[in-house]
Amino acid sequence: MSKRFPKPEITLDGIYSKFADESFCKDFLLDIRFEKGFACPFCGGSEYRRIRSRHLLRCKFCKADISATNGTFMHRAHIPLRLWIVTAFLIMSNKCSVSAVTLMRALGVTYKTAWYILHRIRKAMKCREELYLLDGIVELDDTYLGAPTHGKKRGRGTEKVKMIVALSKNAAGNPEYVKMSDVPNLKGITVGRFARDNIRPGSKIESDNARSFQETVGTEILPCF
Ligand SMILES: [Zn+2]
Fold first, then answer.
1. Distance 10 CA to ligand 1 centre (A)
2. What pLDDT, in 10s, does the model give residues 85-108?
3. Is 66 exposed, middle or buried, given 0-12, 13-18 or 19+ CB atoms closer than 10 A?
4. Ligand 1 mean position to 72 CA, how many Å?
5. CATH 3.30.420.10 matches 137-223
6. Cα of 64 to ligand 1 centre, how many Å?
7. Ligand 1 centroid from CA 66, angstroms
8. In the chain, how long is the greatest CA-to-CA distance?
9. Residue 27 CA to ligand 1 centre (angstroms)
10. Distance 47 CA to ligand 1 centre (A)
């Protein structure tokens, strides 16, 4: 008997159909770019006039015209907006990373263009990730990635890739956001650096490794059960 999979809410075919028209893409991206309110990237002004024929917003203060891509990672790339959106969908819907070769075949573009799109999107994702720190209740732990090994060291002495994972939880204990990083070792200085880069000072940290992480992070760490 074949296994039944739930029907996905969004499909690649649906994305291609919805974003077939470049004008629609411009308006769509413009809307989501300023969905929390307009802020002129040039003067910070908050009032604008929409110029629908050109798919722009004109700042009422400095008169600058702001497009969907102006000042973003897509600016002056001369690549159809549809391709950026399809690529974002492919990245978000694949557990494994999307390679430039895969993207080249999926989009029907050159390898150079596929690599460029991926590079720009990954760089933007990294910048956005660095803006945020986990806070509140944060569960901090180490883990290992790699195939099972036989007859080799286990635990912290393993030859597998060592990872530190931090998961923030809301007051009800439900997971909210996660950050993780591969690290060369699990020494105190390494864990401390990870904590400083990813967790807001004053957060309540829970960990199975409370004792070892306690010395490291220098903040309150509660055992996690
Ligand atoms: Zn302005």
1. 36
2. 999 999 888 877 889 999 999 999
3. buried
4. 16
5. yes
6. 6
7. 9
8. 70
9. 19
10. 8
pLDDT at 188: 79
Asked if residues 196 and 166 have their Cβ atoms less than 8 Å apart, the reply is: no
Q: Is 51 helix (H, G, I), strand (E, B) or coil?
A: strand
How far, CA to CA in Å, does 85 sit from each of 76, 88, 128, 216, 223? 16, 5, 17, 42, 43
Which amino acid is present at 202? G
- What CA–CA distance (Å, rounded) separates 91 from 86? 9
By the 8 A CB rule, do 30 and 55 touch? yes
186 Cα to the center of ligand 1, angstroms: 48
What Rg, from alpha-carbon coordinates, does the chain have? 23
Dump pLDDT digits (tens) for 59-77. Answer: 999 999 999 998 899 998 9
The domain spans of the chain are 12-129, 137-223
Give the mean pLDDT per block of 10 residues along the chain (225 residues).
63 90 95 92 94 96 94 91 93 84 94 96 85 87 74 64 89 86 85 87 78 51 41
Query: In this structure, how many other beta carbons lie within 10 angstroms of the beta carbon of residue 204?
Result: 14
**Dihedral sign, CA of 98, 102, 106, 110?**
positive
The CA 171 to ligand 1 mean position distance, Å, reads 40
User: 58 C-alpha to center of ligand 1: Å?
Assistant: 8
